[in-house]
Specification:
By secondary structure, the chain is of the alpha+beta class. The protein is built from 2 helices and 4 strands, in the order βαβαββ.
């Protein structure tokens, strides 16, 4: 339907606002993610993923440390 939302808590690489140490921390998670065929994504990459899945709107809010709260809407 056209109501509801998907909630994701994950790292989002912010190339403009993250300090270099934070970016390195987020990228180091790639080593763990690669063992499970995954990887960290930039906001642009998340947006493309949502659009391809048929979602129309999203919000990304940094919450704790390297994690962000991502809300995705139909």
């Amino acid at each position: 339907g056209n109501s509801g939302k998907v909630i994701i808590i994950d790292a989002v690489i912010n190339e403009k606002l993250d300090d270099p140490d934070m970016t390195q921390t987020k990228l180091s998670l790639d080593i763990i993610m690669l063992t499970m065929n995954g990887r960290e994504r930039t906001e642009k990459e998340w947006k493309q993923l949502f659009i391809e899945a048929g979602f129309k709107h999203y919000k990304i809010c940094p919450i704790f440390g390297f994690r962000s709260l991502i809300e995705v809407y139909p």
